[in-house]
Design a protein that fits this description.
The protein contains 8 helices and 2 strands, in the order αααααααββα. It is an all-alpha fold.
């Protein structure tokens, strides 16, 4: 989508409309990081109760980003593309905005009925990686998807007695996002270019 037709941006810019009226992207990035890191830290110590459904995910996003954006916790109302350097500038095929809720619910229900503790570690890592990447690919929000989905999946894993080393994800945040991109590099025209092994590797170590 062209910035000119994106209702989330200040006209004539590529900066998201925010509660501070900031139009400088670097300054917004700094402010956003400061607020969201505090919120995520709090959630790590005080898990947000819920049913691990789409409403639970929305509540997490609202809590983390409500200091910065009025639309925090709301599913995006437009389709999006993001140029990915690891894909040579190609965007992942994100979920159409009209199918976000139903697609989320489909994967979340499958994740919840998995008998995780009956699986050996390698299969736990494989399964968690799969749902992590599928939920991430939906990209339900206009911004803040990787942070929210990562925390959501970590809290879910903790809740089913599969503790995750969140610090490992935080220390390797750039690798983690690139691994998520690589895991979902599946295209209608270019075919399956996915490399899920990178995400599996970091998830396996986080579970070990």
């Amino acid at each position: 989508m062209s910035p000119r037709s994106d209702p989330y941006l200040y006209p004539g810019t590529t900066t998201l409309i925010n509660k501070f009226g900031i139009r400088d992207q670097e300054k917004l990035d700094e402010i956003e990081a400061n607020y969201t890191s505090l919120r995520l830290s709090d959630l790590s110590e005080n898990p947000m109760t819920g049913n691990y459904d789409s409403d639970h995910l929305r509540s997490m996003h609202r809590y983390v980003f409500s200091d910065v954006y009025d639309w925090a916790g709301d599913f995006r109302t437009i389709d999006i593309e993001k140029a990915e350097p690891v894909l040579g500038g190609i965007s992942i095929e994100y979920c159409p905005h009209g199918k976000i809720k139903q697609t989320l619910e489909k994967y979340l229900k499958k994740m919840q009925v998995t008998s995780w503790l009956d699986l050996p570690l390698n299969q736990q890592a494989e399964g968690l990686s799969k749902y992590f990447s599928l939920i991430w690919q939906i990209h339900p929000f206009r911004e803040g998807n990787t942070r929210t989905v990562t925390h959501f999946c970590c809290q879910y894993a903790d809740s089913v007695n599969m503790p995750v080393d969140r610090q490992l994800f935080q220390r390797n945040s750039e690798y983690l996002r690139s691994a998520l991109v690589a895991a979902r590099a599946i295209f209608h025209d270019l075919g399956d270019l996915s490399q899920p092994q990178h995400l599996y590797r970091i998830v396996y170590h986080a579970l070990s």
